[in-house]
Amino acid sequence: MPIKKILSVADKVEKQLLEQTSSCLPEKPDLILACGDLPPEYLTQLRELYNVPLYFIEGNHDIRYRDSPPVGCTNIHAKIITEQGLRIMGFSGSRWYNGGVNQYTDPEMKKIVRSLWFQLLQQNKVDIIISHAPPRFVHDQEDPCHKGFRTFIPLIEKQKPTWFVHGHIHAFFNDPADRISRVCETQVLNSYGFFFFETALVEEQTEPK
Question: Which CATH superfamily, name and number, covers 3-200?
Answer without folding.
Answer: Metallo-dependent phosphatases (3.60.21.10)
